[in-house]
Amino acid sequence: MHGDTILLLTFVFALVAAFAGGLVARALHLPPIVGYLLGGFAVGPFTPGFIGDSHAMSQLSEVGVMFMMFGVGMHFSIRDLLSVKGIAIPGAVLQIALGTLAGWGLAQVLGWSSEAGIMLGLSVSIASTVVLIRNLTDAGRYQSAGGRVATGWLIVEDLATIVILVILPVVFGPGEVAGPALAFEVVEALVLTAAFVALMLVVGSRVLPWLLTKIARFCPRELFQLAVVVVALGVAMVASLVFNVSVALGAFLAGVVVSGSALSHRIAAEAVPFQDLFSIIFFASVGMMVDPAVLVAHLGELLAIVALIMVGKWLINMVLGIVLSAGLATTLTVAAGLSQIGEFSFIIGQLGVSLGVLTSEQYSLILGGAVISIALNSFVFKSVDPLERVLGAHPLFHKLYDRHVRTIETPGTKMLANHVVVVGYGHAGRCVADVLARLDIPCLVVERAFEAAEEAEAAGLRVLQGDAANSTILEHARLDAARLLVVAIDQEASAELVAREARELAPGLTVVARADSDGAVEALVEAGAADVVRPELEGGIELMRHALLRLGYRPQQIQGYANDLRESGYEALGDGAQLARVRAVERLMTAMHDLELDWVEVEEGSALAGTTLAESDLRARTGAQVVALRRGEAVTLAVAPDEVLRAGDVLGLMASPEGLSAAERELAG
To answer: What is the dihedral of CA 114, 119, 122, 128, to 10 degrees?
Structure first.
């Protein structure tokens, strides 16, 4: 094989292998990262067949690190972090400290050096944000209290990782440095880092958004794409070459400063393809370094590292939940979400190898532990509900975990009957609950977000605060005595779980739910929902209706198009009751195919202006029946024969198309 093509071949074969691995991982319901790692392993030096250039791929993986950190910076939110700062900040700091200490202790047992033990501890103490968000979303917990705390926790860990990447090269760099000299180098590194951060926040936050705005306004799209890439990579390289700080920090700060731009959403969209592509290359390059022979030869050490990641970190976080009084449900979610390691652990491990602190065998064991923990993490989430039910049943655990947690007093529901249960107090749920309140229909709101639950309570509604999809909260909603259950949450997986749980608790209860895709419609119907609404589809139908009205189409024609759209949009319902009702409306409208309803204005100069309805003899002359009159903001449905028609009045007419055309001519000026 020619040396001048090895990089190209490695790049192409790594992408092909990563793609195949991603497909296999998806088929096995594993995170795609596992597939990318296995794809890299397949083209690495430890498997038969094609052997890629791992050194060249490692350099390309640095681009993946830059883009990943740029994306983290783009999505970094001080507001989100501050909302959970009381738990996330001390929790993350304590967990990194305790995790590092536990990793160091395990390394001593395994016979590793103290320096390698610190690297192991730091690697296992940092979880993967990508894996966390994916599993939170799949479990329907991303917007839950525990999900928000876990996400904020990971933001703090990401920031701590950046500081760690700055300090480690100074502490474990080449040469013997001790005492004052070491302290001086650490201070020097922190000063340079602080200078770079200040420069980016003060100058970069003004210059970069301004520059990107000018480019977006006066340059073609491909130049704007290139500008985004230049900002992400260029700032990272300046950070490394000029300020001697990591490219990860430079890319992160580049993302932070441009996230405040008015073009932030477009910048993020343009960066996503590059971020996805090179992050896949990063994971593939990591997979190329995994030596299965090392994993088999050190199987006991590998299992010990996996146990530290998945069991040790879980126990650490459960203890921290008691210390911080985070709440049982939140603590279980955080403990499950952080019992894995990922991309930043790889970066720290790679740094340890480059500094000569970790051997390649030790790094392979860390990689093996990461792959196993990522693959099993989604199954850890399945233990959250059973553990919450078991532990929550004991007053001791409630006292330990929830002693300082704000709660909403659970309303008395024993006497509640003939009520409607609304799950979710977002925009859709709020609309339903408000109308039910005006109609004096008893309503019980089930909401997991504390702030939204407080809003519902302030509105005078009965509220159960908790996650209906992941706890026994529905058992307190008296579903057996309810008239209706409305599932208004926008998380499809959670909505399906709620519908299934409701069907078990109250088999005869009617369930109405929302869905955002064809697959969700089908899943909700299988789960027991009688009616399913797709908000985006209904919104599109209304947009179509108004557009066609403005274009002069008749309401009857528009109704036909609306029925066609609804039938295609709800085809997943098959011959269910909801589709039958849609078709019944169609048949009703078809029976009236000779008649149409329309609003026609009495124009200035019309011969009928100034005459009474009876004098106009409009029905006899045109065949159009006046069924309503709109004058200003007032609408009259029963129009008296002696009503005088005025210019500017709008008449609601029902007639055949020919009759409406004749009436329009009579009422025209």
So the answer is: -150
d(CA 49, CA 36): 18
Q: Which is it for strands 511-514 and 484-487: parallel, antiparallel or unpaired?
A: parallel
Instruction: Collect all residues with Cβ–Cβ distance below 8 Å to 147 and sequence separation of at least 6.
Output: 136, 141, 333, 337
630: three-class secondary structure by DSSP: strand
Radius of gyration of the chain (CA): 32
Q: How many CB atoms lie within 10 A of CB 296?
A: 10
Task: State both tokens at 554.
Answer: 């008749």
CA-based nearest residue to 143, from 389, 431, 375, 447: 447
- Sign of the Cα torsion 617, 619, 622, 625 reads positive
- Is the pLDDT at 459 greater than 70? The verdict is yes
Question: Cβ(65)–Cβ(406) under 8 Å?
Answer: no
Residue for token pair 């990401």: 158
Rounded (10°) angle between helices 205-218 and 221-241: 160
Q: Report whether 615 contacts 641 (CB < 8 A).
A: no
**What is the 8-class DSSP label of residue 202?**
I
Give the Å distances, CA to CA, from 489 to 60, 387, 445, 501, 619. 42, 24, 12, 15, 50
What was the pLDDT predicted at 336?
92
The Cα-based distances of 512 to 488, 493, 582 in angstroms read 8, 15, 15
Residues 6+ apart with CB under 8 A from 94: 320, 323
- 540-556: pLDDT as tens digits: 888 888 888 788 777 66
What is the spatial distance between Cα 300 and Cα 455, in angstroms, rounded to a whole number? 53
Residue 443: strand, helix, or coil: strand
Full-model pTM: 0.62
Question: Which residue from 167, 471, 155, 75 is spatially nearest to 338, judged by alpha carbons?
Answer: 155
